[in-house]
Amino acid sequence: MTALADHASSRVRCAILGSGNIGTDLMAKLMRCSVLELQAMAGLEPASAGLARAREAGIQVCDNGVEGLLALNPLPQIVFDATSAHAHREHASRLRTAGIVAIDLTPAAVGDYVVPAVNLEERRDALNLNLVTCGGQATIPIVAAVSRVAPVEYAEIVATIASASAGPGTRQNIDEFTQTTARGLERLGGAKRGKAIIVLNPANPPIAMRDTIYVCFQQGASHEEVAASVKRMVCDIQQYVPGYRLRTEPIFDDASVTVMIEVEGAGDFLPRYSGNLDIMTAAAVRVGEEIARKLLPQPAMHQRAGESA
Amino acid sequence: MNSQMKICDVSLRDGSHVVRHQFTVDQVVSIAAALDTAGVAMVEVSHGDGLGGSSLQYGLSRTNELELIRAARSVLSRAKLTVLLLPGIGTREDLKAARDLGAEVVRVATHCTEADIAQQHIGFARELGMEVAGFLMMAHMIPAAELAVQAKLMASYGAHAVYVTDSAGALTLDGARERVRTIRDVVQCEVGFHGHNNLSLAVANTLAAIEEGATWIDAAVRGFGAGAGNTATEVLAAVLDRIGRNPGLDVLKLMDIAEELVPPVMGKPAMIDRAALTLGYCGVYSSFLRHAEKAAERFGVDAREILMEVGRRKAVGGQEDMIIEVAFELSQASASADRS
Fold it and tell me: Structural domains in chain A?
C-alpha cells in the first residue's frame, strides 16, 4: 500500500486532449507508464466512444475539451494533444499560459519538432513539442543516422500506409504530410534537401506501414559506417517502438543508400497494421516520460530507465 | 448531356516514363507545337508521375518540368495546356506554379479507392479557375459499382470529368464498357477514359468507352506512354474518322508526327514485349515496367518475376520502391537456392 502511494506521488500528472482513436491508443500506453499518471481525458462529445472507453478504464473524463483540463485541480503538468492542427493552434497558447507542457501529435507544428531517437535530449525543456508526422517519426532517424557519419545532400522518403489507417485528417490534408515531413528531414535529419511522398494502399488484409528512405551522402563515405549507424539507430527506435524493423539490409549504390523499414503497431487499441499511428503514440509517450523524469524530484532511486541500451 | 468529345494527348507526360523523365525543352516544343496544329484539345506536360514527381523513387527529371510547361505554353494556341497531379506526390503549391505558367487543365489522380485524398486539390484547382478531371487509376482493381462511388466523390468535389484510368492496361472490352456506363449513370459531370495497350486493347477499349458516352479521351501519339504504350492518337483518329466521329483531328498530320517527330525522341518503340504483356496480364501499373527492367538488370533477376510478384502483393501506383524490394528478395532467394 505504501509502495503504491509512493509510486503515485512519484509520477507526473498528464492528460489527453482528444478522444478519438489516437487518444484511446495513447490512453492504453499511458496507463502502463511508471512515471506518468493519466489524470484525465478530454473530448467534446459527451457520448463519444472514446470518452466512454476512458470512463470504463476509470479515467476522469471532461466533455468540454481544453476548458475541462484547465479546470482540473491540480492542473495536469503535461497534456498530449491528439485533436487537429487547427484545434491545437488554439490550445497551444492556453496550455502555455497555464504552464503546462504540450506534446502535440497534430501537424500544427507550433513548437519545435521532436523525434525521440534524434533530439529528445535537446528539447526536454521546451513547453511545446511537435511530433512532426508519422512518416517523419519513422524516417527522420534513419536520415539522421546517415548524417552523423556522412554529410547528406538529399533525403527522400516514401511512406506507404494502409488505406484503413489513414483517417479523414490525413486524407484531407495530405499536402501537410508531405511538406511537414520534408521539412523534418532537413531540420532534424540533417539533409540539405528533403522530399516526402505518401502512398495509400487499400490491400486487404491491410499492410503494415512501410517506408523507403533514399539518402544521398557525400562521395567517399564508408558504406560500412553508414550501415552500422543505421542499424544502431534502428535499435534505439525499437526501445520505444518495438514493431519497428528493417525490411532488408541497407542497399548501397555508390554514394547513396536505400533503407526499407516496416512499422507494426503494438496493437494496444489500434490494429497492428496501423504502425503509422502507433509510432506517433509511442513517440509521444517516450517524450512524455523524458519530460516527467525532468519534472520529478531526482533522488538516486529514480534512475532514468530506458537508457541502458 | 451531349458534350463534345475531346482528345487529350498525353505523350509529353505518360511518355516521360518511357524516356525516364529525360525530356528536353526542344523535344517538348516540337511535339507540342505539332500536336497543337493537329487538332487535339489538350496537351499534357508533366513528369510521368505528375507535378513534383521528379524523385529517386520515380526518376529525376532532366529538365525541371516547370520549364517544360513554360516551353509548351509558348507554342500552344488551340490546345489547352494540361498537367497531372497525384496528391501525396505533388502539392497545391506545385499546381499553383504550373497555373502561373499558363496550365489550364489539371487531372488529379488517385488510386481508384482513394478519391477523397483529391478533395483539397480538386477544390483548389477550381479556385484557380482551372478545368479539372478526377483520374481514378488502376480502375481494373475494383468492380464498376465501387468505382462509381469514388467517381461520385470526385464529381462532388467539383471535377468537370471523372476518368476510368486503365493504368495497368488490364481491362478488356466488357470491363471498360461497364465501368464507363456505371459512372455515367451516377454523375452529372463528363466521363473520361485513359487506356494502355498492354493487352493490345487500347483502341478497342477506348472505342467501347466512347460508345458508352465517354467524352474526355486520352491518347498518345505513336502510343508514346508507359508499358506497351497508350492508345495511339493517330490510330484512334483514323478509327474515329472512319466511324464519322472525328472531333477535329487531322489524321494525316498525326500520322506524320507519329512517324517523323516522335520516334527519335522515344527511342525504343512501344511494343507488347513479354514484360509489357505481363503488366496487362497481371494487372500491374504500367510505369513499373522501366523500373522493373532496371531492377532486373541490377539484381540479375527476370523482370517478369518482379512484376508478377508486385502484382501478387497488390501494389498500387506510386509504390515503385516495392520493385527494388522484390528484386532484392528474388536475388537473395536465388542466391540461397544456388548455395543449397
Answer: 2-110 (3.40.50.720), 134-272 (3.30.360.10)
